[in-house]
Amino acid sequence: MIEAQLDGDPPAIHPRGRKYQQQSEIVLEYHKEGGANVLYRIQPSAQGTIDPAHRTWINQLLRLRKDNISSISVDSYHRTIKKNFESDDIVRSELVICHPSIIDALNLELKQLEDDGIRPTKRLNQFISVKDLHGMLMPNMLAPAEGVYTIEMKPKWLLQSPTAPPNARRCRTCAKAARDNCKAPQRQWGGRVHLYCPLALVSDDEELVTPVIRTLFKTAHVSFENNALCSQDRIINLLTSYFTGSGDGLRLLKQLQDLQAKFDPDGAMGIAPDLEKLAFAMTLRDCSMFLRFSGDCDRPVEARLADLDPKPTEGKLSYWRKLEEQLTDEGWYTGTEKFQEIQKQDEVCLLWTRNGT
Ligand SMILES: O=P(O)(O)O[C@@H]1[C@@H](OP(=O)(O)O)[C@H](OP(=O)(O)O)[C@H](O)[C@H](OP(=O)(O)O)[C@H]1OP(=O)(O)O
Ligand SMILES: Nc1ncnc2c1ncn2[C@@H]1O[C@H](COP(=O)(O)OP(=O)(O)OP(=O)(O)O)[C@@H](O)[C@H]1O
């Protein structure tokens, strides 16, 4: 927990210090982290009083970049995002600046959290960038609110990879998940990753979409309190409608699908792919979606996209190419992988039965 002060215009986070003789206004509490960012909850400090101008910051999240990614102009990137999405379709965010000493303090704390075993093992030795002092302020989509439920998911590849073999029986996401599940069966979600097929989610077919929604409920551990006004089945029906027909969820997924195709029609294997476009397509294939709905089925479902950070092109191209080669050569696309007898998997891919022999 790091104590800090807020400053209004331009938005900035300062250490408690000489400039601020009063007690700290807020504390930054470690929330979560991914491969590229660490997120902090902004909470009021126990002793300080909050300037009324800063009250809107409380309970928001501060998202800070790690130092393990190459720098791409955040400004131009945000212009691309804004050009392609309605503001209601993405998690609202505001750029803020942090004083370097706040970053130093947070990095020291990360080391401590690491020693205390609180950080995820795969994120150890990763720290916040001291070169880029920008952070994003955003609403906490996972904040508990009475009667409101949130599911976080990754829509992933909403179309088959352009360079997958024509006789593929798994889409890119299911092929990669099958490979991950065999190689690291102890991974999250009871040893499986991506238990749903993105092609089924975007199929506009209720019979295919409902099982995906049920899987999302299971993996997100959504449990209904006794006072939920709707039964789980009614909510699952509501979400199925949201992702079929004229539902807004399907509209957003289709838009994501179109953009994935537009920015990467040929795949990473070509001789000279347009790296900037490819990187944007890969961002759109790895972004998150927060799905919010209420236990009272009368209120509308809401979906917002997050984690639309630019993928670094340097270094990543060779990773994407190698992975595509492995998925193809090791038989993960075609379902002819050598591991199949060792670790038999339930096949969820839409292509599995459709292209079965
Ligand atoms: O390769 P993929 O499709 O498995 O996606 C990776 C993600 O894996 P997962 O969603 O679990 O399958 C992976 O997610 P996790 O770290 O496994 O949660 C990352 O998002 C990775 O991106 P980056 O290296 O952090 O920029 C992602 O890598 P990119 O392919 O987007 O570069
Ligand atoms: N607005 C938000 N509200 C609540 N929780 C959030 C929000 N944004 C992100 N998170 C949580 O923090 C985690 C890490 O955030 P994020 O996905 O932005 O990090 P990342 O480093 O970009 O991830 P990746 O490993 O996919 O690159 C997310 O998986 C999510 O659980």
Automatic annotation (TrEMBL):
Q: What does this protein do?
A: Has kinase activity and phosphorylates inositol-1,3,4,5,6-pentakisphosphate (Ins(1,3,4,5,6)P5) to produce 1,2,3,4,5,6-hexakisphosphate (InsP6), also known as phytate. Phosphorylates Ins(1,3,4,5,6)P5 at position 2 to form Ins(1,2,3,4,5,6)P6 (InsP6 or phytate).
Q: What enzyme category does the UniProt record give?
A: transferase
Q: Name one GO molecular function term.
A: inositol-1,3,4,5,6-pentakisphosphate 2-kinase activity
UniProt-recorded name of the protein:
Inositol-pentakisphosphate 2-kinase
Looking up Pfam families in the UniProt record yields: Ins_P5_2-kin (PF06090)
Where in this chain does the entry annotate a coiled-coil region?
none
Q: What is known of its domains?
A: The EXKPK motif is conserved in inositol-pentakisphosphate 2-kinases of both family 1 and 2.
Catalyzed reactions per annotation: 1D-myo-inositol 1,3,4,5,6-pentakisphosphate + ATP = 1D-myo-inositol hexakisphosphate + ADP + H(+)
Q: Which UniProt keywords apply?
A: ATP-binding, Kinase, Nucleotide-binding, Transferase
Q: Could you read off the lineage of the organism from its UniProt record?
A: Eukaryota, Fungi, Dikarya, Ascomycota, Pezizomycotina
Gene Ontology BP annotations: inositol phosphate biosynthetic process
E.C. designation(s): 2.7.1.158
Assigned protein family: Belongs to the IPK1 type 1 family.
Which superkingdom is the protein from?
Eukaryota
Presence of the UniProt keyword ATP-binding in the record: yes
User: Looking at the UniProt record for this protein, which Gene Ontology cellular component terms does it annotate, in alphabetical order?
Assistant: nucleus
The species this protein was found in: Patellaria atrata CBS 101060
